[in-house]
């Protein structure tokens, strides 16, 4: 008799072929055969306390490793709980597969337990969503879903697998298990457009470049560094591209971006859309030449006219452009000394203006002091994660990761609750790295119970909560719109001692009210070797400039 294999074991074989080393999950009767297959294939199963965390962890794993992440959840509420994590990965262009359970095909439309139209729900927020119709097709469709994750700009896929399809056994020789099916997705860009970019660089006296998240997605750090250093192009970084250049690099700029984008004669936008973070393109000088480089054709020129668009892998395009420009007798770099000095002066002025706040001894603690202490505490091996509203907006101005790939934030969906999952994924994927996560107290509350998962799987990290007992980013808008007498409606939280919460769950915890105690508390958390929470009580009546300038309040 021929050997047989179940649907769950076919899933595991397909995941193994894809290089998946761990799945994030919350158990359910529809999906347990996948667990059994993972045991046989040597794939680790990390079970969390909420499906949102499982999906966020799969997203985070993809960002850290450059390989696709995978989450497995049960049908109905298990899948709907994971929707937020999938949507976040969709907006952040993160490749992951969510596998959801489903009632048996034999009970289709009969009202089986937890039956919902999952595929219809997931289709708008994924690159691929499908039902597996037969056990023989399980591995085939898993590979298809992963393949679609990498079509154009990366993103998530979804598969639902009915229970009887997953549990049934079929002859192994009847099941297709793809092993060699992936092709390179790296596109080098149109050669004529690259030559045009080289010409524009040669004539530019005041160029600036924004390196967006696709620089990290495509592991294009070296190409970006060679480009900006070789051609003397001042660089700004956002999203996961933060850290591409180390702090102190002559081409590393952070605080002068608005000035640069107003005064520049050439602006190159790499791997980031003209969305709300960019003022939909309106923050760029109307007289500057604008070049946009992106993996996705649909993003290029969206919301704002451009002078040149190049579709393809940012690393290959920047390398080709640097080579094309560098081979010319005059590539423009020699003329940019004054421009770089001009930007550095603006940068220095902005830093010195804010420095007293960063060193403030005020109590309650100024949020600038907290994020300053965190920035001073980071090492070259610290992965920094931001999960919150107002407090993370402060950190975006001050915190500078020391190495590429060492910054994580939710991305343009602005999702709260990613921090615990990202810390989980980062520490699991890179146990050699230190992981530090700054939470807002509101953000931590959403998924904080998975601190226990960190303890259970022995995943030490340093958690810092900027606690103002408020959803302060929203509170500011309410005060501005309706007046101070209505500023506290629906946005005020209890005074929770999260340091005690950490101890309750088996971790290290402390409460900090004096700014002088922040650094010693961080050191003790580092030395504890445990998951930790440092609960820092910050001034609830201080708002980040980014909060006060949000377009939603304009």
From TrEMBL:
The keyword Hydrolase is assigned to this record: no
Domain Thiamine pyrophosphate enzyme N-terminal TPP-binding: 6-115
Domain Thiamine pyrophosphate enzyme central: residue ranges: 194-320
Pfam families documented for this protein: TPP_enzyme_C, TPP_enzyme_M, TPP_enzyme_N
Keywords for this protein: Metal-binding, Thiamine pyrophosphate
Residue ranges annotated for the Thiamine pyrophosphate enzyme TPP-binding domain, each copy included: 387-536
Cofactor(s) listed: Mg(2+); thiamine diphosphate
Protein family (similarity comment): Belongs to the TPP enzyme family.
Name used for this protein in its record: Thiamine pyrophosphate-binding protein
Species assigned in the record: Nonomuraea harbinensis
Source lineage: Bacteria, Bacillati, Actinomycetota, Actinomycetes, Streptosporangiales
